[in-house]
Amino acid sequence: MTDRKGKLRMSSETPPPRTSQPEDEAAVRSLYTQLMDGWNRGSAEAFSAPFAEDGHLVAFDGTHFKGRDEIVSFHQPLFDKWLRGTRLVGEVESVRFLSPHVALMHARGGTIMRGKSRPSPERDSIQTLVAFRREGDWRLVAFQNTRVRPM
Predict the structure, then answer these.
(1) What does DSSP assign to residue 15?
(2) Which listed site, 37, 57, 83, 97, has its alpha carbon 20 to 30 Å from 2?
(3) Nearest-CA neighbor of 95 among 67, 73, 136, 128?
(4) DSSP letters along 34-89, please?
(5) Cα dist. 121→84, 95, 111, 112, 149 in Å?
(6) By the 8 A CB rule, do 139 and 51 touch?
């Protein structure tokens, strides 16, 4: 569509260009599952495996981890002590491909504390994840975890 001056403009009725295949979406969604499975096993190595070597994670408190090594070295002592026996639960709400090699994912997550059977509502989070395909492999390059605090 064009406006009165002849400039091209996007219409909310125009669907975005198709930039992914169903297998790409499945691969991107599986990164979230892998992340949770690693946490649930208490393994910082497995938790960080879906990240690119240079991937970033911003924790619920604003702590910024740069690279898989930082993610591992911070989380393993937590898994060994304070977070031992905790479990992550969550689900991907949406995946949007920004290009054939970049995907934006939103998820909702929660933490089931040791000895409990349900997530603690004060630990509910909304998460924004960015995945990038390099050499045919999808990896997380960014993960922002924000606690849900309705106003």
Answers:
(1) P
(2) 97
(3) 128
(4) HHHHHHHTT-HHHHHTTEEEEEEEE-TTS-EEESHHHHHHHHHHHHHTTTTT-EEE
(5) 19, 24, 8, 9, 10
(6) yes
Q: Which two tokens stand for residue 42?
A: 């208490």
Question: If you ran DSSP here, which 8-state letter would residue 143 be given?
Answer: E
Query: How many Å apart are CA 98 and CA 105, to the nearest integer?
Result: 10
Burial class (CB in 10 A: 0-12, 13-18, 19+), 46: middle
- Nearest alpha-carbon partner for 104 in 125, 132, 126, 124: 132
Q: Which residue in 74, 72, 82 sits closest to 38, CA to CA? A: 72
